[in-house]
Amino acid sequence: MKRQIALCGAGCLVLILMIVCFKAFPAGAQPKQAGQSSDDPSHNWTLLDYAPAPADNPLKGFMPFYDAYGSMNAPIANDFPHSMEYFYVPLRDLMNGPNSFTFETGIEPQLQSIASRGDQAVLRVYLDYPTRSTGIPQFLLDGGLKVHKYTVFGNTMQPWDSVSPDYDDPNLVTAMTAFIAEFGRRYDGDPRIGFIELGLIGFWGEWHTWPMNGEDQETALLKARPDTKVENWMPSDQTQEQVIKSYAGAFTKTRLLMRYPVLPPAGEQASPGRLIPYGSMKYNIGYHDDSFAYNTLFGLDWYFMGRLQWTGGINKWKTAPIGGELRPEIQLSLWIDPPSRNDMEDFSTAVDDSHVSWLIAHSLYVSRSVVAGTPIYKAAVLGAQHMGYEFTISAVKLPNIQASDPLQVDLRIQNRGVAPFYYDWPLELGVLDRTGNLVATYSPGWTLSSLLPSAAGQAPYTEWTYSNSDPHLMAGTYTLLLHVINPLSNGKPLKFANATQDANRPGWLTLGTFNVQ
Q1: Per-residue DSSP letters for 236-282?
Q2: Dihedral of alpha carbons 53, 59, 61, 62, sign
Q3: Which of 98-112, 114-128, 207-221, 393-407 has the lowest mean pLDDT?
Q4: CB of 481 within 8 A of CB of 433?
Q5: Total domain count, the chain
Q6: What are the distances in angstroms from CA 335 to CA 61, 331, 348?
Q7: What is the pLDDT of residues 291-331, one digit of tens each?
Q8: pTM reported for the whole predicted model
Q9: Would you say residue 175 lies in a domain?
Q10: DSSP structure class, residue 58
């Protein structure tokens, strides 16, 4: 009897649970997951379809050298997508006296030309560029600045070739800091400039003077070590920090990058397995890998990722940009299948590990073989799309309202890329009426720079809400749009990775429709 009562009780409990579950999840329904629509009208999320964002989204992807637009020997030869152009400029073109500057002739023509094409500039100022004429201002040379002649990297001992200066010379240090201060005063926050590389020090402004760096040469068996018999042309740590500190103080809006982590504490050198945070990590400055997909991954201790890891910068990408140059020798061969070289690193792995946002890849733009529809073009476009940020709206909630009601917009946004967007360009909501006229715009105050790529175990999206107590909308049916305002007025629009991007208005993402009663 007890067994029958127990069985009856168990059966009743199962029946009750089945009834409750059926009411909660009727036939064909599933428990709500992140990004799914709810059957509750008060939580009526509309899902938006994903579609890849373009390869020429602003401040990411591949770029050419600006020079090719005016070159007769190697001009731009195709329409490979880009939103930035890169150029070097010698300091002597920008400075002709201790407090006399020539930005109008030395940098303005390049910035104006690049901006005229809707692109933004990345640039580096140098003093020493092998095979080119010296970038040292003449007043410093006339004042007795000591220089080193050299024959490495194709340079010669001829008077017209570059020389390496004594970077610790007090007059040069004063000139560099004066230049940086004026550079920042004039150009910090200039919408024509995307990023600035610190430059100034070392060959090409790359912060190294190898093989004249005070170390013996690294081999497959031995790590490079200090060697008093080898000349060291690099500036002292004190001079290096003075340059870094000057840049960080002069540029608080435009984002900066430098080539390597520097300033080891008390001369303690980091190495694989020996983490020693370097002093440069305390500055809000990113890093650029100018040998990308060639010396990027965790190989020898001077490879890019190894340097970042053991100097405390493995997560620097979360707050400061990572950029660089695709190694020149592999800029075309990297996209050939099967690979034509065996000395290349896997591009996707290098992007994922470094969280790089942009790379110079000049060969892609001056090669007539890189034509839309060809395998090399398609593969390189995918590579460009893989870098940096990619924002997609997975769902939006737009309730119908009365004319006297506030308008509330809820959306779920996800960064599907490998890096943040490093600027807080403003977002704007727009309202179209039935005829397609833009009748209202609102500033929701959302910040793109806060959106990191989703990590394992984290929510796949961030939920944003905007409420306007008096939207000034008459009765009718409206379409809600969203776009990001590029501060460069004719700059390329930042497009979302959604199928409804540009559906109703160029440069705007269509979120959905709502009614005002």
Answers
A1: PHHHHHHHHHHHHHH-SSSEEEESS----GGGPPPBTTB----GGGG
A2: positive
A3: 207-221
A4: no
A5: 2
A6: 15, 8, 11
A7: 999 999 987 778 999 999 999 999 999 999 999 999 999 99
A8: 0.89
A9: yes
A10: T
